[in-house]
Amino acid sequence: MMDSRTIKEKAFLITIFILTLLGVTPVFYVLASVFYKGIEAFARRGLGILIKINGGILPALVGSFVLSILSTIIGVVLAFVAGLFVAEFPNSWVSKATRVASRSLLEVPTVLLGMLVYIILVVPTGHFSLLAGALALALVMLPYVMVHVEQALESVPQLYKEAGYSIGMSRAQVLFGVSVGIAKRGIASGVLMGFAKAMGETAPLLFTIGAARSSLPCSILSPGDAVPLMIFQYAQMPQEYYHDLAWAGSLVLVIAFLVVFFVVRRLVKEVRY
Amino acid sequence: MDHAIIVEKLNVWIRGNHVLKDIDLKVPQGSVTAIMGPSGSGKSTLLRSINRLVELVPGTRVKGKVMVFGRDIYSEDPYRVRKDVTMVSQTPNPFPHMSIYDNVAIGPKIHKLVKSKKELDKLVRWALEKAMLWDEVKDRLHEPPTVLSGGQQQRLCLARALALKPKILMLDEPTANIDPVNSKKIEEAIKALVRDEGITVIFVTHTPAQAVRVSDFIAFIYNGRIVEYGPSRELALNPTHELTEKFLRGEIG
């Protein structure tokens, strides 16, 4: 005969298990369906759609690749510097303002960020461009990365900074040699989160890159395409062929994500203390 | 006798609290001085005023003079002061993202004390030997410091401070968080450093026994003032001040 405490504990564990299962099921469902439908699409249309410009997904792949690099450079550099500043001078009014601004930016619907770039870059230059798209995505990732950089640096115990000072390190040497070194894993996760968030975004691209899908972009100033945007628009087409392209694009996007995540997490080791 | 450190009328306020009051202290070169006193009496603050670490706390005001080998440190570059007057903290804090070797090598590297890798290797070995740690780590210099025990980590911090070839070494309750065996090694290392290298040592301790074992002079500090200062044995056996006597009997602290 079990006593009531044991029964309660069992019931509790079972409840947690079921809730966990409910939580992770969608993730596996999405992954499984993307892989299943994606492979099916490639089987039906051939791997050739990867490199086909007209009626294939090459322009979207190239566009996404360029966007990911460009937006990461713009967004991460800005976010890293801002995060460093806020963590290092937490009480200055600039930091306080930056913190409020970045937290607010997190809540802004990303389509509005696209419209902002439309007004400040697309309208003055007179055309859509990958650069405009990258800028919009950089704005999406900026607050995420900044918050992570800031928190990673703040979590470095004072103890280690003091150790740096007590052997005569300058403030910059402590910041870059000690704090950033100890927080590198946290900073890398932040960059990854921002990257993933930006790469999955469709809305900021609606008003910025121009969905040029029948030719390759010749420079970052010309219009282009991106995989999420292509998926969104092809999924609404009536023809089955375009649905297959959308699934194929989804599969490539998911695989690219997994590879980037795996590589970065392997390269940047956690610092234990 | 030459003095390594001369403190004159030192007053320190931290966020409005008057932590150190009119401190006067003369530390002879090549001696060991123990700063002893109850918790919150200002021992650590005094230590941290001698390498200007105290300034890192926002809202700190320092008045008075601290001379190190004749130089007024408050009119010098603080980073340079901290290179010559290095400190080991109470809690072992080796840099967790660097190897054991790099923990010791970082100081000489940033202050450009060595010209070649070979010289650096030699200096790292010297510092680790002086900290009585070399034999225990020589085969795992490139592992992170987290593989070491707390006491070994504390000796690594000592080696890190020594690699700068400081003129003055300060230790803030260096054995407060570690076991007796490691404490003994640190005490021996301190004595050997003074004997062989002529380094001036000043350390904070809670325990009168340790102060007597290791130091030549004891400064007893209470409520931000130096109550008594004198040769260790004399002060411990025949304290002239009532407060010192009470502290030694374990009635305050």
Question: Could you describe the 3D structure shown?
Answer:
The complex is a heterodimer of chains A (273) and B (253). By secondary structure, chain A is mostly helical. Chain A has one domain: MetI-like fold (Orthogonal Bundle), CATH 1.10.3720.10. Helix content of chain A is 75%, strand content 0%. Chain A has 11 helices and no strands. Chain B has 253 residues and is of the alpha/beta class. Chain B has one domain: Rossmann fold (3-Layer(aba) Sandwich), CATH 3.40.50.300. Chain B has a 6-stranded mixed β-sheet, sandwiched between helices. In chain B, strand 9 (217-222) and strand 10 (225-231) form a beta hairpin. In chain B, helix 3 (100-110) packs across helix 4 (117-130), helix 3 packs parallel to helix 6 (150-162) and helix 4 packs across helix 6 (150-162). The two termini of chain B are 33 Å apart. At the A-B interface, helix 6 and helix 7 of A face helix 2, strand 6, helix 3 and helix 6 of B.
Q: Largest interface, with Cβ-Cβ < 8 Å?
A: A-B, 22 and 30 residues
Largest sheet of chain A: none
Look up the CATH topology of chain B.
Answer: Rossmann fold
CATH class of chain A: Mainly Alpha
List low-pLDDT spans of chain A.
none
Number of strands of chain A: 0
Q: Assign an overall shape of chain B.
A: globular
Q: So, CATH architecture of chain A?
A: Orthogonal Bundle
Q: Please give the count of helices of chain B.
A: 10
Poorly predicted runs of 5 or more residues of chain B: none
Whole-number average pLDDT of chain B?
91
Spatial strand arrangement across the major sheet of chain B: 6-7-8-3-9-10
The overall strand count of chain B is 10
Oligomeric category? heterodimer
Share of helical residues of chain B: 25-40%
